[in-house]
Every structure is written in C-alpha cells, then in structure tokens.
Design goal:
Shape: globular
CATH class: Alpha Beta
Number of domains: 1
Structural class: alpha+beta
Low-confidence stretches: none
CATH architecture: 3-Layer(aba) Sandwich
Order of helices and strands: HHEHHEEEHEHEHHEH
Length: about 240
C-alpha cells in the first residue's frame, strides 16, 4: 500500500475521494464565501422566492455558444427537482450571475438513473478572468457534485476550460464507449450542424474535440473504466 502512494494516479484518486467527501467539501464551501463575497448560492425551495431568475437563465442559454438553449418550463421543472443551483449577487438586487444543473437522461440497461451535468454558466464580468475575478464556476461545480454523490452523472463538452474545471473537482475522462448504451445514446443529441452526421452514435467529434467525463463516485460505480487522456491538456489551469 505504501509504495502505491508514490504512484501519481493513486495520489490523484485519493485527492478525488477527499474532495467529494464532507471533510473536503464543507471547508471548501466555507472558503468560497470569502472568495466570492456577496454571492449567494440558491437551490430547492429557496428558488421559489425568486421566480425572476428563470428568464435571466433562459437568456443566458440563448446567448452562450457552448450551452443548449433551455425553456422556462424545463428550468422550472429542474428547479422543482432540486437539480439546479443559481448564483446571485446580493449586492445588485439578486442579479443572476451563474448557474449549473443536472438533467435527467433516463435509465440504463441495469435500471440505473443517469443525469447530465450542464447549463454551467457564469456572467462574463464574474468569471475568474473577468473584472471581478471570482471562482464562481468552481463553487457551483463543487456544490452540485457534493450534493448528488449518489447519482450517476456525466458531463460532455468541447470546451477546454470546462475540461480543466472538471479536472479540478475529480472528474474522470473516459471514452463514450464506456457508457451504458442507453446513456450513450441519450447524451448524444447534438444537431447535424454541429456533428455533420444524422447518426450521432457515429459522431466524429466523440473522444476527439468532444469529451465525456464522470465524477469519481460514478466512475467507481460503473466499474472503473479505463481513463482517457486529452492531448490538448498539459495540466489543470
């Protein structure tokens, strides 16, 4: 056991276990209150008091290149399921400055529920490299993963910054072929204009510019499939 601790991958795995445990997330969430002053993270019943967040998020999904457009009904439904977290600036009349959500993909061949992590958005002025220099995306990512450790979650993206963000929170990059077939099919819904094919199971972007990642607990539950490496990545930013 001791010699294996010198293995870089073993150390990364131990860090991922710590990051997703209450021992790791509780102090990290507390630290976020200092790193994101004035920002409050709302979910569940707390969102019912602020119905005006919905049109703001709809606008964000329509104007952000990497996001799938979401309707008011879709957002209201996911909020009722307690599967969305909204970041608001309490100093600016609760302006919505960030969001993240889990979208139900359905059940796989073993009758296990799967969810896709998506609708991750932060107002340009509030991004880490924006004028306010706040790690809101990290705070949203950490909260939704720590609150849903028992769920099977995946995330897909062509955005290198999003891949780096996931790496900081223990996401494991795997191949699409490692996913259950029903889940694989459910997550591949990009339009022809993006993929160049009407058969998304043969999408040429898979495992190339488009990557799939799962949280460490999900990776363990699905049998620890072989992890992939993206040649564009040298180290987490």
């Amino acid at each position: 056991m001791i010699p294996s601790l010198f293995n870089p991958q073993t150390r990364k795995d131990l860090l991922a276990v710590f990051q997703t445990s209450s021992l790791g997330t509780t102090p990290a969430n507390l630290f976020d209150t200092f790193r994101t002053p004035g920002i409050q993270y709302l979910s569940g019943s707390a969102l019912k008091r602020f119905a005006w967040w919905i049109p703001q998020v709809v606008d964000a999904t329509q104007n952000e290149e990497h996001l799938l457009t979401k309707t008011s009904l879709e957002l209201r439904t996911v909020a009722d399921q307690h599967h969305i977290i909204i970041a608001v600036d309490t100093r600016l009349n609760y302006l919505v400055v960030g969001c993240i959500a889990l979208w139900h993909l359905g059940r796989d061949e073993q009758d296990r529920d799967w969810f896709e992590l998506g609708t991750l958005w932060v107002h340009p002025d509030y991004r880490y490299h924006g004028s306010r220099h706040m790690p809101i995306a990290d705070a949203l990512y950490r909260r939704i993963l720590s609150e849903n450790q028992s769920k099977n979650i995946l995330a897909t993206t062509t955005n290198l910054a999003a891949i780096h963000l996931g790496m900081r929170h223990g996401m494991q990059m795997i191949s699409y072929a490692s996913l259950p077939k029903k889940t694989h099919k459910a997550t591949c819904v990009c339009p022809f204009e993006k993929t160049g094919t009407h058969n998304n199971m043969k999408c040429p972007l898979k495992n190339q510019s488009c990557r799939v990642r799962v949280p460490f607990p999900t990776w363990q539950r699905v049998g620890k499939p072989e992890r992939s490496i993206d040649s564009r990545i040298t180290k987490p930013s």
